[in-house]
């Protein structure tokens, strides 16, 4: 049998102390996890990318151009859009994920352009500047062709124009992979 004198009951004050110490423990544990996760960010791959819904566009259609920085805390400097009218932008998106203790983050800046005439137009370089490094996207060209039937292009998928962590980049002088499709008008 149990002796009643040996059993101690928790008083409201001692329950508060137990709850308070658990809360403090959780605060310290959360802080430690966040600190360790932040240190993994520096070990993640850092790169920039440029995506566009089309590099050859039918006149009268729009094109979304997205400049993104992955695992880089940086300030963005927009490219020169003097040759192509911008109808929307910059539209800013930010993303941060913790997966299996690894943190990744990205910043994206999207511009919607609508060329008003046919020709070859150049989009200037964009810059992502962090504390110690400046990342630069290369300028690229957009070709706008006549659209006599006023066709609408399917712009649901984006094409990667540039990605800084890939060694072999497609350059206009040396095509890599598939050739462009010719559009018959």
Structural notes for this entry:
The chain is α+β, with helices and mostly antiparallel strands. Helices cover 16% and strands 37% of the residues. The protein contains one helix and eleven strands; from the N terminus they run αβββββββββββ. The chain has one helix at 12-41; strands at 47-52, 56-58, 63-70, 75-77, 86-99, 102-113, 119-123, 127-129, 134-136, 140-145, 159-163. The strands form three sheets. A five-stranded antiparallel beta sheet has the order 5-6-3-1-11. It starts with 11 loop residues before the first helix and ends in a 22-residue tail after the last strand. 16% of the residues are buried. The model is unreliable at 35-43 and 168-179 (pLDDT under 50).
Distance between the termini: 98 Å
Read across the widest sheet, the strand sequence of neighbours is: 5-6-3-1-11
Any idea what the shape is? elongated
Question: What's the rounded overall pLDDT mean?
Answer: 76
What is the string of SSEs from the N terminus onward?
Answer: HEEEEEEEEEEE
The percent range for strand residues is: 35-45%
Q: What does the main sheet amount to?
A: 5 strands, antiparallel
**Share in helix:** 10-25%
Oligomer category: single chain
Number of strands: 11
Q: Give the helix tally.
A: 1
Low-confidence parts, pLDDT < 50 over ≥5 residues? 35-43, 168-179
Tell me the structural class: alpha+beta
Radius of gyration computed on alpha carbons? 27 Å
């Amino acid at each position: 049998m149990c002796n009643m004198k040996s059993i101690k009951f928790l008083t409201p004050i001692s329950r508060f102390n137990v709850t308070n110490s658990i809360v403090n423990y959780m605060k310290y544990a959360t802080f430690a996890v966040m600190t360790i996760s932040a240190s993994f960010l520096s070990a993640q791959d850092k790169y920039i990318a440029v995506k566009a819904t089309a590099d050859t566009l039918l006149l009268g259609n729009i094109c979304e151009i997205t400049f993104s920085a992955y695992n880089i805390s940086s300030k963005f400097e927009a490219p020169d859009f003097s040759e192509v009218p911008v109808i929307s932008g910059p539209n800013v998106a930010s993303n941060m994920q913790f997966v299996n203790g690894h943190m990744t983050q990205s910043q994206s800046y999207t511009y919607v352009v609508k060329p008003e005439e046919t020709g070859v137009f150049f989009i200037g370089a964009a810059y992502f500047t962090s504390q110690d490094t400046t990342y630069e996207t290369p300028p690229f060209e957009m070709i706008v062709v006549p659209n006599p039937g006023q066709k609408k292009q399917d712009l649901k998928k984006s094409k990667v124009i540039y990605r800084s962590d890939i060694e072999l980049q497609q350059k206009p002088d040396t095509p890599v992979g598939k050739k462009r499709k010719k559009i018959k008008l």
